Amino acid sequence: MTQVTEQAAQLRRLLHQYALEYYVLDNPTVPDAEYDRLFRQLQALEMAHPELVTLDSPTQRVGGAPLPEFASVTHRVPMLSLNNAFEDDDITAFDRRIREGLGQDEVTYDVGPKFDGLAMSLTYENGVLVQAATRGDGATGEDVTRNVRTINAIPLRLQQREGVALPSLLEVRGEVLMFKKDFERLNDDQTAKGLKTFANPRNAAAGSLRQLDSRITASRRLAFFAYGIATCEGVTPPNSQSGVMDWFGTLGLPICKERDRVQGAEGLLAYYQRIGEKRPSLPYEIDGVVYKVDSFAQQEELGFVSRAPRWAIAHKYPAQEALTI
Ligand SMILES: Cc1ccc(Cn2cc(C(N)=O)ccc2=O)c(C)c1
After folding, report:
1. CB under 8 Å to 4, separation ≥6 — which residues?
2. Model's pTM, two decimal places?
């Protein structure tokens, strides 16, 4: 390693750590000016030595000329669609079917908000983000890697702990969304520029990801929460949904702090009630909560019906009354 190569690697390590603290942990330990100083130092180094630029360099989040179109991507593992439930009885029936299917008298569920954004699949090779694809029809989606790289909450490189191996291949599923306050700010901005406004944060996020010019995507404030694993090679992942979520947290992937692990139908309904009460004050829009059987072995035992899993369901809230402007 030459001296400048080592210096660039050290700067990238620091900038990754500070960006994680700022965007994912919401707990910066250095002033913005310090981040900016190091960022500019890396930029100068890369300008003087272009061979030092790496795919995971924070200077490469926004780059490249606009694309003529999006390439299509075939998902290694189809992106699921969830069955919906609206009534409490549907949920007690869901839990009963599962208990009977497993021959268990109580089942542990991993539960979380159902974000009103866009499903996204991220592929990391040896810890470096190499591809991002939309759901599309579940089997084939669009390659939106350039645009997703501009989302600051999505790490360009997974956090590596001393002596802990990273997967050679990891496919992360999650939701790209826009927080309510960033949505309002964007619409104010659009109005000031005489441009069209967006009907809701989901449309704003979709419109921002559909841009062929990633500089426009970079100007929108998108967020991301990881919620599942599709493929993992090179290391053995945890054997439960909640274990994977905790693991993702150690890798520097943003995990929603409202998620939980509950027991049985009453645990599910208590969670639905609790999140329903918090919903208006959440910083992002949700259209329900998602319940998943926690154990992967139990998920495999239950399998799927057509394209939707028997082991998961979305419990939806009534449509929210129109936002009072
Ligand atoms: C000039 C400047 C530099 C950086 C930032 C925001 N920010 C801060 C940090 C930090 N404090 O750890 C890390 C990444 C980052 O993007 C702003 C708003 C303005």
Report:
1. 45, 48, 49, 52
2. 0.92
Q: Which residues pair with 232 in a beta bridge?
A: 170
pLDDT digits (tens, 9 = 90+) for 132-172: 999 999 999 999 999 999 999 999 999 998 888 999 999 99
Round to the nearest angstrom and report the end-to-end CA distance of the chain: 57
Return the best residue to mutate from 15, 23, 29, 36 for the ligand 1 pocket (most ligand atoms within 8 A of CB).
Answer: 36
- Tell me the pLDDT tens digit for each residue of 228-251: 999 999 999 999 999 999 999 999
∠ CA 8-10-11, rounded to 5°: 65
Query: Measuring CA to CA, how many Å separate 59 from each of 72, 209, 263?
Result: 26, 20, 45
Ligand 1 atom with least separation from CA of 152? 16
Residue nearest to atom 8 of ligand 1 (CA): 32
Report how far ligand 1's centroid is from the alpha carbon of 33 (Å): 7
Spacing, Cα 31 to ligand 1 middle (Å) = 7
